[in-house]
Each structure stands twice: as structure tokens, then as C-alpha cells.
Amino acid sequence: MTVDAAPPEPPTLEAMDPNEYEDAEVVGDTDYRRDEIETLLGEGAWADAFETWAADTDLDDEGFAIATDMRMLREFDFFWDGFADRVGYHAPGIPEDWKQRDLHPDLDSWATVSGINAGLTELGQEVCEVLYDEYIDWESDYEAPDDLPDFDE
Predict the structure, then answer these.
(1) Is residue 78 part of a domain?
(2) Number of domains within the chain
(3) Is residue 70 within 8 Å of residue 62, measured between CB atoms?
(4) Is residue 8 one of the residues assigned to a domain?
(5) Would 149 be classed as within a structural domain?
(6) 40: burial class by Cβ within 10 Å (0-12, 13-18, 19+)?
(7) Of all helices (H) and strands (E), which one includes residue 90?
(8) How many CB atoms lie under 10 A from the CB of residue 46?
(9) Among 20, 40, 43, 152, which residue is least crowded by beta carbons within 10 Å?
């Protein structure tokens, strides 16, 4: 399956502590480099990742249209985790009480909700991989202690 859509505008990254998310934990340095990541997203990382994801996602056009109508793609967060030497992310999701909240007129099944949530999680992961592999050229500030065993021998 694919999503037949042009890449939307990349999200604007807000100054937030990633440890406030239930699905993220960042240890150590609090320089999340959001300004730099936001610039890289605008310079093509978002569009590159979106195109790769759209060509291979299990999310269908209807689910993507719902996510777009709900402005969910603007709610992504990306941040640098210097301790783990990776780009971390938080993907938006439809809450479990979606039926009671009447979030969207076309949102009518758990299958649709799960497809959107899974698809957005996959998009977030793809963005992280594209950023790290193709756009980020900075080194982590973490240095291993001198007393670690040498496994090369």
C-alpha cells in the first residue's frame, strides 16, 4: 500500500523536555538541538523521509487524510539524544477515548485508529533514520570512560 500525497510542511519543533512523553527517555545532556533538527527537516530531511515512508506504508489514503485533517503531522517532535547518539522522536497519536471525543467524522473504527497510530509511528522512525544517516554530521559529546574493557584482543 502507499499514500499518494505530496510531503506536507515539516513540523515546528517546540522546546519541551522529551522525558515528559510516555514513550521517550533521554539521559544526560539537555541540548536537544531542536533548532538544528528543524532546519534539517526544512532542508529536505522531512520530504525525503516522507516520500520513502509514503511508498511503503500500510496506512491508506483515507487514514492519511484523517491524520492530515486532524493536523497530526504538525505535532511530531524530534530531538537529539546525545547520550544515545541518536535522534529521538515523539509521534502524535489518536487517544483511546476517541469515540467519546468525536475527533473526526470519518474516524469510525479501531482498525482505522490503529492504522493511523502505527503509520505515524513508522513515519517518525523513518524521519529519525533519514536525519541520522543523511543529514546529521555532528558527533555526540559522550566519551566512554577509560576503564572500559578492551574487547578487540
Answers:
(1) yes
(2) 1
(3) no
(4) no
(5) no
(6) buried
(7) strand 86-90
(8) 24
(9) 152
Per residue in 30-82, pLDDT (tens digit) is 678 889 999 999 999 999 999 999 999 999 999 999 999 999 999 999 999 88
Q: Report the C-alpha gap between 53 and 137 in whole angstroms.
A: 23
Alpha helices in the chain (DSSP H): 34-40, 46-56, 61-69, 98-101, 110-130
Residue 37 in domain = yes
Query: Distance (Å, rounded) from C-alpha 14 to C-alpha 57?
Result: 27
Say which residues have a Cβ less than 8 Å from residue 32's Cβ, sequence separation at least 6.
Answer: 18, 26, 79, 80, 81
The amino acid at 44: G
CA-to-CA separations, 6 to 2, 11, 65, in angstroms, rounded: 12, 15, 12
End-to-end CA distance of the chain: 48
- For 41, the domain range is 18-135
